[in-house]
Specification:
Layout lengths: L4 E4 L3 H12 L8 E4 L7 H7 L2 E3 L1 H7 L2 E4 L6 H8 L8 E4 L6 H8 L4 E6 L9 E7 L5 H12 L2 E5 L5 H9 L1 H18 L4 H22 L3 H8 L5 H12 L1 H18 L2
Parallel strand pairs: 1-2, 1-4, 2-3, 4-5, 5-6, 7-8
Antiparallel strand pairs: 6-7
Length: about 270
């Protein structure tokens, strides 16, 4: 890619994206420029990949694709700070829950190229899942370049913007749910004598393998579950207990709460 990518903000999500992009060698080091409220926190990452660390104004002036990786409540402040400094044809990428494409246009105060995206932190290990929605005015080439950025650290899918709240709950926030499940599974094994680090390895690898089985075979999750549940066996006993304790409804209600919070942030 020949474009310069800029990041304003580099917290957990921004850092995962920056590291994913650099690991994939999508751009040269001089094509990535990053600012952060606390630039000293970028020194270790900057020394590892040797990208530019600068301030918001400089990032805005040089970026062809500008990713805003700050908290939602800071978007208006940051946009007011940089909107008169950006290149005329800059593509603004919004990755904040609750901030819409129209919100971005309103904050800029004029028509501009805006992309709404929802990545997740597994981008750090090149296994991210990102949803992308395009605003007005983006060419086919623009869209391909945005997809290329997000596919450099995992999978990306173009969706209607109206689905972004659901995406937030389904993939944006859900790594936290999965980490809780891994921790709980490991705690259960530790309770029965397994060393903790081994328990984490068994639990995490089992989730990786289970997910891969669904993705590569295309089988329904219920069919995969049935493959493990022998009649009168240990697994169906565990599944019955999970159903008794309301695992499915707890997850669905957690996602409902996440969607509700995302909508309230507008």
């Amino acid at each position: 890619m020949e474009k310069t990518i800029g990041f304003i903000g580099c917290g957990n999500m921004g850092r995962a994206m920056v590291e994913g992009i650099m690991k994939a060698q999508l751009v040269y080091q001089d094509q990535l420029i990053v600012s952060n409220l606390h630039p000293e926190k970028l020194q270790d990452l900057g020394s590892q990949y040797d990208f530019y660390i600068s301030d918001n104004e400089t990032v805005a002036q040089h970026a062809d694709i500008l990713i805003l990786a700050v908290k939602p409540h800071l978007y208006k402040t940051v946009i007011n700070e940089i909107k008169d400094l950006t290149k005329p044809d800059v593509i603004l990428v919004d990755i904040a829950p609750g901030i819409t494409i129209q919100d971005m246009v309103d904050m800029v105060g004029s028509e501009c190229k805006v992309v709404k995206a929802m990545p997740n932190t597994p981008a750090l290990v090149s296994e991210g899942m990102s949803a992308i929605s395009f605003g007005k005015g983006l060419s086919e080439e623009d869209q391909e370049e945005i997809i290329e950025i997000f596919e450099s650290f995992g999978k990306a899918c173009v969706v209607e913007e109206r689905l972004m709240d659901a995406v937030t709950a389904l993939s944006g926030s859900s790594p936290a749910y999965v980490f809780l499940i891994i921790e709980a599974m490991a705690d259960g094994a530790v309770r029965h004598g397994m060393p903790r680090q081994a328990a984490y390895q068994f639990a995490a690898q089992t989730l990786i393998g289970s997910a891969k089985l669904i993705l590569e075979t295309g089988k329904h999750p219920g069919e995969c579950k049935d493959m493990v549940c022998s009649p009168g066996g240990t697994t169906i006993e565990a599944v019955a207990k999970l159903e008794e304790k309301g695992l499915r409804s707890a997850i669905i209600e957690a996602m409902d709460a996440c969607v509700k919070k995302s909508k309230s942030m507008r």
